[in-house]
């Protein structure tokens, strides 16, 4: 039940044991990442834990850096929403648990904010049916 997969003792006195290169499901074993959890590639529900790097909205607007207050001033700051993934970046987040999922302020002065196309585990984000 080793989370990293099959292993064996080695004959090398400097290395007691190592993972084995076992071929599974038609692909080679990933020894380098053995024992590490698979990276998350989709998000459910409100996407409040989304920490990916999508930085464009569904309408194609570039996201504004969360630390900036221009062109849109806002209260969604790291200090006001700790542990919500905000910081010195422009990636989509959902700090306030918006029911539509991850979103961002845009760099367009005419469009304050928009939802982002963050992949859900069942299908691509569909705000119409959220």
What is this structure, in a nutshell?
With 130 residues, the chain is mostly loops. The protein is 0% helix and 9% strand. 20% of the residues are buried.
Written overview of the protein:
It is elongated and about 65 Å long. The protein contains no helices and 4 strands. The chain is low in regular secondary structure and 130 residues long. Helices cover 0% and strands 9% of the residues. A hairpin with a 7-residue loop joins strand 3 and strand 4. The two termini are 39 Å apart. 20% of the residues are buried.
Defining traits:
130 residues; 0% helix; elongated; little secondary structure
SSE blueprint and pairings:
Layout: E1 7-9, E2 17-19, E3 103-105, E4 113-115
Antiparallel strand pairs: 1-2, 3-4
Distance between the termini: 39 Å
Characterize the main sheet: 2 strands, antiparallel
**Rg, please?**
21 Å
User: Structural class, please?
Assistant: little secondary structure
| Percent in helix | under 10%
| Oligomer designation | single chain
Strands side by side in the biggest sheet? 1-2
Share of β-strand residues: 5-15%
